[in-house]
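Ticket 4471: requesting a sanity check on a complex prediction with adenosine-5'-triphosphate. Repro inputs:
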Amino acid sequence: MPAATGAVGVMGGTFDPIHLGHLVAASEVAHRFGLSEVCFVPTGQPWQKSDRKVSDAVHRHAMTLIATASDPRFTVSTVDIDRPGPTYTVDTLRDLRATVGPDRPLAFITGADALNQILTWRDHDEVLRLARLIGVSRPGHRLTPPPVDGASVSLIEIPALAISSSDIRARVADGRPIRYLVPDGVDHYIAKTGLYRDDV
Ligand code: ATP
Ligand code: MG
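Returned structure tokens:
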């Protein structure tokens, strides 16, 4: 197989579960920024979400593979799952830089809401050296530029998709449908494994 070339988008997330909002955002960013690949990176133990039980990484990884399988631009990396301890963006980017080699620019894709917290990220200066940042808008969040100078930060609007993993988990727990909010394979996987059914 020839070595891949071109810029790589990095889409980190809990993906508990992955849904069409994530896939539309990745596709739109790839198109707008000419990325040849978007790598989905399920988190290890997410420090922002320590208040809630996050599903086992095996399930989150499996659903991410199922959801991305049909798109040749989309890949999945386990760097965050394989690294012990909480996930920090700087570690994700260092590991991916080592994986893809020195020649491919990295673009870290994140919700514009999360991007506004950038000054609280561990080693945020190094994050900004390792990757350009692309903030995607979500319904209900305004696009305000993050408080960093001179960095390569872009903000783009994603077609309004009011889909969130939290809502999908609540729907499964209530017995409401999630069809057309997640890829069919992810819907089937959730039904088969009983994920989220007993969430309170
Ligand atoms: P939760 O409801 O549990 O917080 P989530 O739907 O926000 O889950 P995450 O795995 O936390 O999903 O999100 C991963 C990344 O995708 C984040 O940067 C998030 O802002 C972004 N994202 C999530 N949902 C959407 C959406 N509908 N449109 C665009 N971006 C989204
Ligand atoms: Mg979220």
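Notes from triage: The longest helix spans residues 20-33. Leaving this open until the requester confirms.
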